[in-house]
Design brief:
Elements: H1 8-16, H2 24-27, H3 33-42, E1 47-52, H4 57-88, H5 91-103, H6 119-155, E2 158-163
Antiparallel strand pairs: 1-2
Helix pairs in contact: 4-6
Length: about 170
């Protein structure tokens, strides 16, 4: 990431104001030090204008890959937890009894919803989707960094103004 600090105006203001660029520690022995320190605290905060002109695609790719791996782990763990909570709450038994009562007959007497949407199938599908998401998120973030760099080269990038804390 390349940054440029445009702080010319504040350096000019410091040069024009006598003693304003010095800290209160160096002014302690001078007459009027308290007045100069009070004036320095009362002035407007300095501002710096930065322009983000380039984002390194390699660092974006590494960061996006790491964050997408974390997202995949969170997704798999949350699906497993929800699936276990549904099993413990008796949702699958309720679905089985509802289907057996509504359809009836010997064909559905041995029906179990877990045979079709079991834990291993759901977690396998979740891991597949998470792996695809890792690839897609990483590729999308890297492509976005390349596109931003091309747009910034053409238009100049995003300009940010930073100001120091008035405290």
């Amino acid at each position: 990431m390349t940054e440029r600090i445009d702080d010319t105006a504040s350096r000019t203001a410091f040069a024009a104001a006598p003693g304003a660029g010095q800290s209160a520690r160096f002014q302690a022995g001078q007459p009027g030090a308290a007045a100069a320190a009070a004036a320095a605290r009362g002035r407007a905060p300095r501002r710096a204008r930065l322009r983000l002109t380039r984002i390194d695609p390699w660092s974006v790719m590494k960061t996006a890959f790491l964050l997408s791996i974390a997202f995949a782990v969170v997704t798999v763990v949350s699906v497993a937890m929800v699936w276990q909570v549904l099993g413990a709450a008796g949702v699958w038994d309720s679905i089985n009894s509802t289907i057996q009562e509504s359809i009836g007959g010997e064909d559905v007497a041995g029906f179990r919803i877990e045979d079709y949407v079991g834990t291993s199938r759901v977690l396998g599908f979740t891991m597949l989707v998470a792996a695809i998401d890792v690839v897609l998120i990483t590729a999308t973030a890297t492509l976005t960094a390349f596109l931003y760099n091309m747009a910034a080269a053409l238009l100049g990038g995003v300009e940010i103004t930073l100001a120091e804390d008035p405290h």
